[in-house]
Amino acid sequence: MTIPSHVIEMLKKVRGRFAAEPIAQRMLPSDAEFTTLRPQRNATQASVDKYWARLHDPASQADQDALADPLTMANPDQFSANIENFIGTVKVPVGIIGPLRISGLNANGDFHVPMATTEAALVASYARGAYAATKSGGITAALLYEGVIRTPAFVFDNLFNAGLFVEWVVREIDALKAAAEGTTRHGKLVSVEPIVDNNVVFLICRYTTGDAAGQNMVTIATNALCEDIAARCTVPMKAWYIEGNFSGDKKASFLGLVTGRGRKVSATVTLSGAVVEKTLGTSVQAMLDYAQVANLGSHLSGQLGAQAHFANGLAALYIATGQDAACVAESAIGITRMEARGDDLFCSVTLPNILVGSVGGGTSLPSQSAGLNILGLKGEGQASALAEVAAAVCLCGEISIVAAISAGHFTRAHENLARRK
Amino acid sequence: MTIPSHVIEMLKKVRGRFAAEPIAQRMLPSDAEFTTLRPQRNATQASVDKYWARLHDPASQADQDALADPLTMANPDQFSANIENFIGTVKVPVGIIGPLRISGLNANGDFHVPMATTEAALVASYARGAYAATKSGGITAALLYEGVIRTPAFVFDNLFNAGLFVEWVVREIDALKAAAEGTTRHGKLVSVEPIVDNNVVFLICRYTTGDAAGQNMVTIATNALCEDIAARCTVPMKAWYIEGNFSGDKKASFLGLVTGRGRKVSATVTLSGAVVEKTLGTSVQAMLDYAQVANLGSHLSGQLGAQAHFANGLAALYIATGQDAACVAESAIGITRMEARGDDLFCSVTLPNILVGSVGGGTSLPSQSAGLNILGLKGEGQASALAEVAAAVCLCGEISIVAAISAGHFTRAHENLARRK
Amino acid sequence: MTIPSHVIEMLKKVRGRFAAEPIAQRMLPSDAEFTTLRPQRNATQASVDKYWARLHDPASQADQDALADPLTMANPDQFSANIENFIGTVKVPVGIIGPLRISGLNANGDFHVPMATTEAALVASYARGAYAATKSGGITAALLYEGVIRTPAFVFDNLFNAGLFVEWVVREIDALKAAAEGTTRHGKLVSVEPIVDNNVVFLICRYTTGDAAGQNMVTIATNALCEDIAARCTVPMKAWYIEGNFSGDKKASFLGLVTGRGRKVSATVTLSGAVVEKTLGTSVQAMLDYAQVANLGSHLSGQLGAQAHFANGLAALYIATGQDAACVAESAIGITRMEARGDDLFCSVTLPNILVGSVGGGTSLPSQSAGLNILGLKGEGQASALAEVAAAVCLCGEISIVAAISAGHFTRAHENLARRK
Amino acid sequence: MTIPSHVIEMLKKVRGRFAAEPIAQRMLPSDAEFTTLRPQRNATQASVDKYWARLHDPASQADQDALADPLTMANPDQFSANIENFIGTVKVPVGIIGPLRISGLNANGDFHVPMATTEAALVASYARGAYAATKSGGITAALLYEGVIRTPAFVFDNLFNAGLFVEWVVREIDALKAAAEGTTRHGKLVSVEPIVDNNVVFLICRYTTGDAAGQNMVTIATNALCEDIAARCTVPMKAWYIEGNFSGDKKASFLGLVTGRGRKVSATVTLSGAVVEKTLGTSVQAMLDYAQVANLGSHLSGQLGAQAHFANGLAALYIATGQDAACVAESAIGITRMEARGDDLFCSVTLPNILVGSVGGGTSLPSQSAGLNILGLKGEGQASALAEVAAAVCLCGEISIVAAISAGHFTRAHENLARRK
């Protein structure tokens, strides 16, 4: 039994369906003809119909009706700045939690938070956490830092030229900053840090991005900075790239955990022992005991930080408010802590990489805009508050899941609420 | 200048808005009265109206109309198994790419793939990658492994009892397997691996989950396994928890990268040099040169694996087909490789943690169901094919972004396609 | 101030010493003549003298005397199986701690442990930890797992052939096991797990290695396994490599943390409150408070597991007992935990990757052999006990440093004991 | 076979030696009497004899003679500033490689490098790499950055006070810098960066440390800084700790990889195709092919960076020159790259965390001092050059091992050179 049984199992499973030769056949490239979809930037009734004509079989008219419904088709062009090859909209159910009391540096008041998900029990769980937190006087939150990054890479023949390049950049930094900031009204280049690996130099360009999440803004600004370098720097350069796959854009990274990328927020609440017992059905000690094991699990499985399910809260909030759902990959890292404070329970989350905007991206689409309006955080001046709400929501989720697991309720909640499937 | 300037900048920014005392005030807990939303499992016109009555101010009737539109409200109860406290649906625009030719172990044929996103340029970019891949004979893909995990934790007084517990589990494994599998028609417990850290034992319980993504299934099965242990095991136990925060559920982890959690798929295509030049507007060598730098960036920034933006493709596909968008956090890790093959370019992705189902979760909601129907992958027997499609889509995205960055087109694409904002 | 001040500082520092042109000159390759040292496997007085003739200027006769002292030169050939190009021995001071009481699965009794280091305060600190632990009844320890790994890699043209290869390996596993085990009396091939990334297959070959640390043993055995594959497997293979840089040999890795490489040991002691106060000069609560912060630090800085300074104990023990000091890189990861047990303090360490042998490597050199003899753990049948001692020593170090930092004594100890420098 | 076979195997192994009850007995704490070693700071003949009296049985007189040999005992007190409870010295064999030509920013010339190890084949392998590099014109090396860090932690009641604290530190930074630098002639506080996780603030204090490795220096300086804070800062503080387990001292961390801790050096050489063939017995293409697989292995196993065996070179050099061998744990991370340059092979290493000094630590002990003298790098003004040598040595090791594995020679070398055991 030198080969693990699960490997053998899996091979049997494959073999069960195919004999060797057919598989080989099946996996070969093919030169069969095909006609590709013509790309469409501006969505119209006609363009949508044309796509659907192609999609019928396997899809049906009912499928078309579900995506290209009358409300969507009343003005398909409103989506043109957000998508190409438009065929309709997918309807993601939205639930509401609240009031969630937040005493934040930027967000302040009692919020109702829209959450879009198809996972049963998720909204109920966050709602429970929000109730416990609000009942305990609300969540204190503070935006600690902001700074979206792009990290262009520059390749040289050798280490010596890489060094000369760094020196040139340091000397020319004011002009470079001007070039970058010339592309944007709201973006400010806060710092440029060179990272050298022999003949390759990455520049960590860190920006504040006003009320936008800012990824496009920093791309365009950094591109201008790079082009200014390319135009004026006389150190012989083999190549430059707008992004050296270093910034952590759309992916979890330790750089993000250590230095942050996006907005960094801490949120905290001290739950009274009574609330833990009545609202959450468990005890402070039980939650602390589990927190210890959960922390051990996070280490042993090699997570980035230690938390339970930031991704659930972030994905639901991001989708409901027109944020970039793919950024959940980079945002869902950080730290959850629980500690005894006398008979009460201190609970805290810190998320170093929240990527949200109150303008730009999907925020101006009607239903996403509605999501921001429910929060009262649409438009200029609200992105920092939105980031604090995001962290506060994550804190609610952490409280609820730790309570549920410590009390042994976790499974039951999922069984009951997903009961119809 | 011992304090980094960005720290000083950030402090000024905070100070600019507040004086010290008001901040302190602002961040205190508050005992003001509040009435919480009454939780609602079954959505009705009345329940939705009631919530909206609460949400008006700051939200408007137009906001309500955008979420609780007539199509949505025609049958609000259809969402009840997927959400609580329902107030409507958020409409995420869907674009289509294809045909994407896949010669997979499970998926086979020319697919049109729906992608839901609000990020301009994303669909266009993936469409370009799909065209290049299909033009080159299509993508070979294979599901290599499947196995959703839960990792309950058991706490003992000491190491010795932890050891006795492991021994008991090994002895009783057949009964435990029966207990777990008794809760599910489709789930099979493939392996149980104990991980001991002194007095704490985690059991890595690995299941195949049929055509469901399977998180609920493995939770319920593992709960039964744990309750069987709790009922029969005589080794004195201090506590057990259904999940020791070890499985990597909803978060990126090295456990996931090393051993996989969910479905593991490799997808690959060899692009002809001609396609790289005509379709992608760059050269094989330019893509290889960039790939080397991108790989360096992935190491230096501490990513899990090395890839560019799996999260974009996964989030868009997950949302469009009723998958759990929060799972993007754990799914968006893995490896992208590009290598020379004569004058052509070998491109490969391997994703160890794809979490998808062709049944269950959000897959039966009308617009999500339509997404699966467009693929022809709804219902029983399709989950493995869906996982292969997910990997193939990610490969398209990797090809397109590497081409764009290597050619210097990346910024321009984002500028043009998000042009209206 | 967009460029961080430390970057500017560093550039000034470089510039202070050189002007640009001289640097360029200085860093060019040179074709000047040189004569290389002739390699010597068998050390003799003559060979040592010959090397030293070369080394005089800059080194002196006193330097030669310090390395090639009479004791060393009495029998230089005794080192020939451990080193090439021998010029003498470096004398690393050894201190002793103990008695350290261990109630282990394998190690049992009161041990005196030799530790070789040049870092002042290290031995004193570990001695203090040992005293506290022994005073509290001793350390319980258990070898939980053993399994040194090699991970050869096999490269194919494509995914399909990689799959056929895996199937072939599974089918032929008994013969392959025989081939591997035919090279060694003590090594047993425990498991072979294939990891596929498209066209590349890694085989995680896991061995028990008797009383040797075993790296050479598993290399030779795995090489035989690979050659058997190469000779008989008909799946077309592009290349194979004895190690795919996957096993974690000589480097920290999450694979090592998650699955272990080498011997995995847990060691634990419950310190009485009285011992914490009298011996360690702090309180249980103070240690717990610090442990919480230390755990947070480990997460935020991206460590592998959470511990304070396993490396100190391991390096000192490895050097004193003829182990491979380079393995400290992979061994010094794992988990330290401290928890309240009533008024007492539960302390535990788990090290997943201890690489030690009681035979082989440097263990038979005279002074290293003496180190093992002091422990009473030289020769056959002692490696598991030695691994338990290693973990127990690490536990002593963790106790002492956490106590020192929590009490504010850490700095003072280092100031006093390194006082002469 | 739900339980992996290796788990069952391991349990059998344990069970084979013990029955359950005896194990329990064996692992209990014991109150048996013991007398501890009296700690000794100043080593004398008498103190050494006294220890040995205790160690006889199990150790023998021969063991004592091996450690407490006449040369060592001629002046035992010379070790007193480096160790406590001294019982003698362990003799680690030293081999020499060279000449290694280095064209560095700081190190310049042809070096002979002493390496202390008991691993057969190690010195021969590095010697081969050195020959290939020197033959190709030598290694270009540059110290890119230096900065040893300490990260004290400060704990507050809440986030708000943590914020006030950061503000206070920023305001008082000049005084704090003076306090820190008042303790040291050579250390300079380069930057202080606050990292906030809710109520806990870490200060990343980064120093240059002159020619010392500097860990003690930065501890003492940071302690003074902390005490100045504690004395003057009026923000209510719950506790402070000299180190929040954040700096990466004695352990691998992503912080170290991303921002460096210690000296950061890049070293590079372009090997001619002829040298690769004649000296290394392989081809440029074969080395590149393997490098690609090795890079994949580094990702999939979750290493920090990508390299083969920095630890071997570092441990051998550190021990031979009186550096802290435990620092291998943190130093042995970084990046090795190999790329085609026409028909030649560009090879590069970057190590972000080299911890070496040319003064302090063990550098003034006679045999360690001899090691530095062989390099010509003892005393003031040489630490940067020593760091460049360390990186250059690692590069030699990478070249040699990649060549050996790509050529299939790796196993044979280990078989032959460890032939006597």
TrEMBL record, chains A, B, C, D:
EC number(s) stated in the UniProt entry for this protein: 1.1.1.34
Record-level GO BP terms: coenzyme A metabolic process; isoprenoid biosynthetic process
InterPro entries: HMG_CoA_Rdtase, HMG_CoA_Rdtase_cat_sf, HMG_CoA_Rdtase_CS, HMG_CoA_Rdtase_eu_arc, HMG_CoA_Rdtase_NAD(P)-bd_sf, HMG_CoA_Rdtase_sub-bd_dom_sf
Keyword tags: NADP, Oxidoreductase
Tree of life domain: Bacteria
SUPFAM superfamilies in UniProt: NAD-binding domain of HMG-CoA reductase, Substrate-binding domain of HMG-CoA reductase
Pfam families in alphabetical order: HMG-CoA_red
Single GO molecular function: hydroxymethylglutaryl-CoA reductase (NADPH) activity
Top enzyme class: oxidoreductase
Family classification: Belongs to the HMG-CoA reductase family.
Name this protein carries in UniProt: hydroxymethylglutaryl-CoA reductase (NADPH)
Originating organism: Thioclava indica
